[in-house]
Amino acid sequence: MQAVLYDGSWYGFMAAVFDVYDYRFTDVSVCPADRFNGHLFSEPHRVYTDEKKAKRVAAGLLNKISEDASAQLYRCFLSGDAAIEETLLAYIRYALSSGPSVESDFSHPAVIKVTQIAKKVWREQHRMEAFVRFQKTADGLFYAIIEPDHDVLPLIAKHFKNRYADQRWLIYDARRRYGLSHEDGGVSFIEVSFAEGSTSARDVAHVYDASEDLYQKLWKQYMTSVNIAARKNLRLQVQHMPRRYWKYMPEIGG
């Protein structure tokens, strides 16, 4: 089996797909270079991340499948599932050889898997858009920490840019250790260095604005007043807002 190694980015993966076709690889395994464990009998092919190659693959796909199906592939890639590249490559090969009908051909294992995984990522994307809670630092930066199962920061950037267009804010993914920053109307992805284990909301409390504690108390009191105990449905609450999000939500006690 031929190992094809790329840098872990979406453009890198699409450039890897280009190379799979360009070099006529058949029995192939596409893998991020930092997760490659080695093959005994063959030298890996290392992909140079070429944006032009990546865009050629993307354009070729859009001639075969819809924009919605193409977006599903991207969401699936962001899932971070093990060996997701194998599923994506199988889908892409099927699409390029068959055409638009593939995206609704749920008899094909790659199509059904991409559809299912993309839906999970889409759900988490919308949960993040609904449940991210900002806290204000002393220098006026609105700061939020998240730990999503999937890498949804690229998917939620547009939502928060539009919703908080006039504010400086940072959403930090503690699991993947990078953030989404908005300042002067522009959004960028940045790496933020914290001391080990100090990315929780409580650990960075010393940089909060003095009014933030009062705001959180008022917000919790409001949530208490609108939540009637007799109508509380914990099962439904967990269904719509999983427990893993609670620790970063002040109204619940984050």
What would you note in describing this structure?
- The protein has 254 residues and is α/β, with parallel strands linked by helices.
- The chain has 2 domains: 2-124, no CATH class; 132-248, no CATH class.
- 43% of the residues lie in helices and 14% in strands.
- The protein has helices at residues 10-22, 51-62, 67-78, 84-98, 109-131, 153-163, 212-226, 234-240, and strands spanning 2-6, 28-32, 45-46, 135-136, 142-146, 169-173, 178-183, 186-190.
- A 5-stranded mixed sheet has the order 4-5-6-7-8, covered by helices on one side. It has a 3-stranded parallel sheet with strand order 2-1-3.
- The protein starts with a strand and ends in a 14-residue tail after the last helix.
- The model is unreliable at 236-240 (pLDDT under 50).
Observed structural traits:
single chain, 254 residues, alpha/beta, 2 domains, 5-stranded mixed sheet, 3-stranded parallel sheet, 43% helix
